[in-house]
Amino acid sequence: MESFLKKNFDVAAKHPSEDAQRRWRRAVGAVVKNRRRRFRMVPDLDQRCVVEAKKRKIQQEKIRVALYVQKAALQFIDAGAKTEYQLSEEVREAGYFINPDELASIARGHNKKILKNHGGVSGIAREICVSLDSGVRTSDLPIRQNIYGPNQYVEKPPRSFWRFVWDALHDLTLIILMICALISVAVGLATEGWPEGIYDGLGIILSIFLVVVVTSVSDYKQSLQFRDLDKEKEKIFIQVTRDGYRQKVSIYDLVVGDIVHLSIGDRVPADGLYVSGYALLIDSSSLSGESEPVYVSHEKPFLLAGTKVQDGSARMLVTSVGMRTEWGKLMETLSQGGEDETPLQVKLNGVATIIGKIGLVFATTTFCVLLGRFLADKAYYHGFKWFPNDALTILNYFAIAVTIIVVAVPEGLPLAVTLSLSFAMKKLMDEKALVRHLSACETMGSANCICTDKTGTLTTNHMVVDKIWICQVSESFKGSETAIYLKSKISEKVLAVLLQCIFQNSGSEVVRGKDGKNTILGTPTETALLEFGLEFEGLVESQHQDCKKLKVEPFNSVKKKMSALIKLPGGTVRAFCKGASEIVLQMCDHLINSDGNTILLSQKQKEDIMNVINSFACEALRTLCLAFKDITNQEAEEIPATGYTLIAVFGIKDPVRPGVKEAVQTCMAAGIKVRMVTGDNINTAKAIAKECGILTEDGLAIEGPEFQKKSPEEMKDLIPKIQVMARSLPLDKHTLVTNLRKMFKEVVAVTGDGTNDAPALHEADIGLAMGVAGTEVAKESADVIVLDDNFTTIINVTKWGRAVYINIQKFVQFQLTVNVVALMLNFVSACITGSAPLTAVQLLWVNMIMDTLGALALATEPPNNDMMKRPPVGRDENFITKVMWRNIIGQSIFQLIVLGALMFDGKKLLRLEDPNSDIVLNTFIFNTFVFCQVFNEINSREIEKINVLHGILSNWIFVAILTSTIIFQVIIVELLGPFASTTPLSWQLWLISVMIGSISIIVAIILKWIPVESHKCTTVHHQNCYEALPSGPEAV
Predict the structure, then answer these.
(1) Each residue of 938-962: b (16+ CB within 10 Å) or e?
(2) Which of 260, 280, 662, 717 has the maximum number of C-beta atoms within 10 A of its C-beta?
(3) What is the pTM of this model?
(4) What is the mean pLDDT of residues 126-134?
């Protein structure tokens, strides 16, 4: 079985090839009862190809023309196809002076001519009644949404409950059974009259109705969960200026006229015009297909929704939203091709295919045997004389054969994965993790390596200045007390330069709220510096508010610094730089002293400053250097790269999150190696890593530049020892992840928050983006968004990933046991006695127990802490393990022996001597069979452990399904006799049924004492190999 599955049903968890996807679809073949339901969550590859071709065509024929043709060509097109826009009365009454369609066409068509006719960006702002400084008024939002539309795209209407009912009715076997039932009713009425003649057929119809309703409700609830999760994925908040205040709003609340603040990693939320900014570089590949980014400036001010900010920052005036944007029109034209199936879904489709083929053979053989014996008996006793009831008998044989197929083809297997994943995703949402791709939740359970950032993930990301070195004086910072002390010791000229650097060379902003309080909007590092600067504002006259920014080079993770060119009030131009201490220090050749004079920076002083930086870093402080350079007029065009004067060194404290050390220890116990990859100083990284328990005595801490210099052979020896990588570039992280996956076959999870982390997030088996600090580009490249940026949340994702895998194994073990017993029981009985003990109605009920209800009960078990005390599942480990086969075969043998004994000698064993003893015995066999499955369902809660009752009451879903199964069984036996071919049983027979079923638990305990090889370590390195859990009595 495993070789067949690996050959035909093996797909990658991430970015599977189309060939692999088509291969497993072909392997499934025709052994599918209901394609509409079984493949509901599987993308239509042909439709996807059509969508991609359509998208390429749109990009080539429409958008690329609008973006890249020459100006002359554009003017020619405009002249030939000029549209006259009329101003409607509604727009006039609202106080606006430009038609919504004309306004939308400016950015969408990159139409400089119309923009110029309207007076440029400021003219457009006047026509839509908005101030470029204070933004729109909140009171105007409803009017603007009414005139220019909301920022929402046309969505595919959700499937109603009745669509799921319709899908469920497309099951081929149920359709055949319905036809059989109708024929049965017709023949029964003709031969037995009313109402006896309708019981058999009506029983099948009622059973089908129950199966369809339960299936539809389950599927509909899943669809609602996925719809809620899809809404969560689209929740994006952006910064706008409204009512004169900078604030965060939902992307859906954006209106025409809003002033949007864009920074690196943001997705442009609507079409608009550039107002102001610095070095804005836009990636428009999602719209145009062009890989080369374009600069946006006053000369080329057009911004389109759906594009991404690759570098720089800007303010943008929104000119069109929702379906009037180019992105909205693209989304309206295209339909999604669906999300790729997960490896477990594919694998279980393979299992269902194998079992279905076996069941098909058994069903056909059973029908042939029953029909053959019937014809032989008829020929022997009646000489082929036919009676009206004979047609009904043959029809019942056919119905039993079809029902065996219903039971044998386990459609619920692949759908159970979807059920388990949707349940896990919903629970993870409550635990601050948003799963963007189904497969990530599943793959995370197999992760044996986590490459994590430091800032915000292991630490709180609430930064404060803890120490400062300035003018060769090192001080701990304690708010205003330290500010007053420094003012008394250091020249005001020095502090003025320091404050100019802090406030002007910053991508963050101090805004005054409606309550009059200052709020800082920006990164935690810059927030710490601005809070420091605010302590000095009343003490020092720095005139930083009167400075003018000429040019800005925003911070990114490659340069590890931010620079700005500033024009001071006196007309002097000054360059400021801040960033990684070692990098900025190397750019400096002077130092400012306490009198405010610049002095030459000697090599000895550089070494002393490096010692200060290292001492700060060893205290787990993030270190930053600030520097400046006065520029002559000839140099004023570009920001210099050398010749700076060092102002100060800051030590910024970012405390370790509570619970991180315990979470790291949990990972190690679970066979997961944690590696810290950070851009910080190596001493800072080592100090934090030791505090978190990541860096051990035999572990290695290395810097990114040194790592990149290593040859592949050196990396092979080095990578297993690496626990900390400091001063790393995004490329270093990508190289590490690639080698861990390809060289060492590890399943790697990676965290990231910046735009440049996107390649590593894409390359990793599981990309984890930060929800608070992460950019939109990082989030779109990730598989899971950690909403609280907490490392402990990543452990919860791992725990749920393992729970999904183990829960599906439990369900498969349970379903295969039912399959084996039901098939063998009916087949052997047909061969020996010429009749089947389980009727079509009874088999349909058994199918519901093991399919929909079984999946709900076992696939939704919450994780427990023991799951993190075992090694992760390897990439190539068999899904159906030897332990599972032991349990399946053992339980099947027990049930077949018991039910076989009852079938052939039941009357004697139970002392049944009544005239209706046959139906009593068959009812008792059916009842005992069901209770064997009920208790085996309890057994399946633990594959290896003996104590299967631990925590059972805390899982209300399992208890509710088990209780409802028993209640329905009582109703079927005691009240629905004519329809289900049963008869009421005495309390003694009920007790015996329950007791025989409960022996399954004793059998399970005995089976678990049989030693079987389990949890084989498949990882390459001894660091990740852990002893398997005991499988004997120790496992209780």
Answers:
(1) bbbbbbbbbebeeeeeebeebeebb
(2) 280
(3) 0.78
(4) 90
- CA count, 13 A, side-chain hemisphere, 806: 27
CA 210 to chain CA centroid, Å, is 34
Q: How far apart are CA 240 and CA 221, in angstroms?
A: 37
Nearest to 842 by CA among 931, 935, 973: 973
Helices (H), 59-171: 64-68, 71-80, 89-94, 100-108, 112-117, 120-127, 141-148, 161-168
| Higher per-residue confidence, 105 vs 71 | 105
Q: What pLDDT score does 624 carry?
A: 93
DSSP designation for 197: G
**Residue closest to 366 by CA, chosen among 864, 854, 840, 823:** 823
Q: Is the separation of the CB atoms in 546 and 569 below 8 Å?
A: yes
The residues, any chain, with a CB within 8 Å of residue 464's CB and separated by 6 or more, are 477, 528, 531, 652, 653
Residue 606: in which H helix or E strand, if any? Answer: helix 603-618
Is residue 634 a contact partner of residue 534, using CB atoms and an 8 Å limit?
no
Residue 501: pLDDT band with limits 50, 70, 90? very high
- Looking at residues 352-365, what average pLDDT do you find? 80
- pLDDT at residue 944 in the model: 87
Sole residue written with tokens 């490459």: 451
- Give the chain's largest Cα–Cα span: 124
Q: Which residues contact 612 (CB under 8 A, 6 or more apart)?
A: 469, 474, 649
Which residue in 760, 750, 698, 685 sits closest to 729, CA to CA?
760
Least confident piece of the model among 233-237, 472-476, 545-549: 233-237
SS3 561: strand
In contact, 408 and 847? CB cutoff 8 Å: no
Which one of 43-52, 871-880, 920-929 scores highest in mean pLDDT? Answer: 920-929
Q: Is beta strand 548-553 parallel, antiparallel or unpaired with respect to 588-592?
A: unpaired
Q: Name the residue among 553, 554, 508, 505 with its Cα closest to residue 527.
A: 508
Q: What is the DSSP letter of 136?
A: B
Q: How far apart are CA 148 and CA 99, in angstroms?
A: 9
Among positive and negative, which fits the CA dihedral 478, 479, 484, 487? positive
Q: How far apart are alpha carbons 359 and 408 in whole angstroms?
A: 5
**If we measure between CA atoms, which residue out of 31, 250, 42, 283 comes closest to residue 141?**
250
Task: Check whether 1035 has a pLDDT greater than 70.
Answer: no
Q: How far apart are the first and last CA of the chain?
A: 31
Whether the ω angle into residue 195 lies within 30 degrees of 0, i.e. cis, is: yes
Residue 245 main-chain phi, psi, to 5 deg: -120, 140
Average the pLDDT over 998-1023 and give the result: 71
Asked about 453 being catalytic, the answer comes back as yes
Calpha distance 729→732 (Å, rounded) = 5
Weakest-pLDDT range from 537-546, 617-626, 711-720: 537-546
Indicate the DSSP class of residue 39.
T
Asked whether the beta carbons of 510 and 528 are under 8 A apart, the reply is no
Contacts of 607 by beta carbon, 8 Å cutoff, 6+ apart: none
CA torsion sign for 583, 585, 587, 592 is positive
What DSSP element (H or E) covers 648?
strand 644-653
Distance CA 941, CA 947 (A): 9
pLDDT in tens, 987-999: 899 999 999 999 9
- Strand ranges (E), 356-484: 433-435, 449-452, 464-470, 473-476
Helix axes 388-408, 172-191, angle to 10 degrees: 160
Helix axes 18-28 and 343-381, enclosed angle (nearest 10): 10
- Please state the rounded mean pLDDT for residues 24-50: 66
**Angle at 69 (CA atoms; ends 63, 71), nearest 5 degrees:** 125
C-alpha closest to that of 483 among 502, 468, 464? 468
What are the residues facing 474 on neighbouring strands?
A: 469
- In whole angstroms, how far apart are CA 46 and each of 8, 17, 67, 733? 20, 14, 30, 36
| In the block, residue with structure tokens 């009240």 | 975
